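fyi for ur records
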Amino acid sequence: MLQPTPTHLPKPVSGASTPETARFWLKRFERLLRGDVDHLCTLVSREMGKSEWEVFSSELMPLMASIRWHRRHLKRLLRTRRLRGGAFWQLSQRQRLYREPLGTVGIIATWNYPIQLLGVQLVQALTAGNRVVVKPSEHAPESQLRLLELAREAGLPEGTLRWTEATREAGAALLQEEALDHLIFTGSTEVGRIVAKACAERLISSTLELSGRDSAIVLDDADPKRAADSIWNALVMNAGQTCMAPRRVLVEAPMYRRFIEALEPIVSASTAVRLVQPQEVERCLGLVRDAVTAGGRCLGGPVESTDGRTMQPLAVVDCPPEARLVEGAHFGPVLAVIPCSDFSEVLERHARCDQKLATAVFTQSEGRLERIAEDFESGIVTLNDCVLPSGHPAAPISGRGASGWGSSHGAEGLLQLTRPVVVSRTGRFMRLPTEVPSDGIQQFLRRIMRRGAHRG
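which gave:
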């Protein structure tokens, strides 16, 4: 049971539909989360197999940062503002842009970061003024239930936040029966297609955060030790169950030997990790075996699981480009390392993947990255680091194609959960005539337009 709310906190808000009341709710929510840190870490660790430190650092710390960011910027982002720059014939008109909540937002929660991802989605949907209904993940029911209880206890009015059972059937019912104005789904591309079809049939807008199969790119002027440390840390984080974790490393030929020398001892020192979905263990191990059979060399080992749930993180170096491991269609801690003759080959191999969320580039020339960043077609490009910078609370996560659509996190994610409403006022004593102007006035307006075209 939750303890009584401490008296030094602000009074419960009457609703989260205005920036001021939303900021009060955020403050209370953050205080309750801080007081429940140990319990949340224990719950997630038990359900996901993560260490409590990993839960604290990768789940609770980013969520707290997001809450604080929204408290600081919410009022500015949702404020009413005047639209300036109107045409000369609109002199008597004044337009103001308002942000209104969408209505009821459904969230089908994911399991791989059960507190961080659901927590940020709740923060954005509720502070935008929406009602929210959540389908918790069947893999993290206890930890997500606790998070939802804390969010409600922080002062939401009756009916603002509801949740279903943590079952697949409940997710299907949410899509088919709930009166939704928007849906947020985080999960695989395969399930995302089903969700998108269901939303399209009911004309429900959606945000789809689907899988990435991203590349890490090590250029010929990189620091090999830093690259190896960062890439491997991103791979083993959350047992490789991170949508923006690297699936392959593309290394320019002059740097290849030095990178492998830096990577090998790190891989050898890794310890076994537990995956949530047993079928992914066998898939990962099978991809490694196939890549080795095709000519790759496996770092780490053994390439087996003793209990069907745990495995050793693995890297296949000299990985044949045609190996299925290179495609990255897995969700676990295995990595393909591929030598590339030059940057053109790096781009060509990177472009073969149709799911790009975050590309990590390692080079000591920051100016070089600025020139080539758009070539990677990713929503996030990190320089000399991997995954961690994407945790910035203002950084939007935006998929494209098979990686989904819409934005979450940051200003873009918040505004997507509102709708713009423009209110136009025309002055009482001066307005544009509604009758057709005389021929002379029409010719005068045409001359003005032609002169503007010549100046342009």
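The longest strand covers residues 93-101. thats all i got for now
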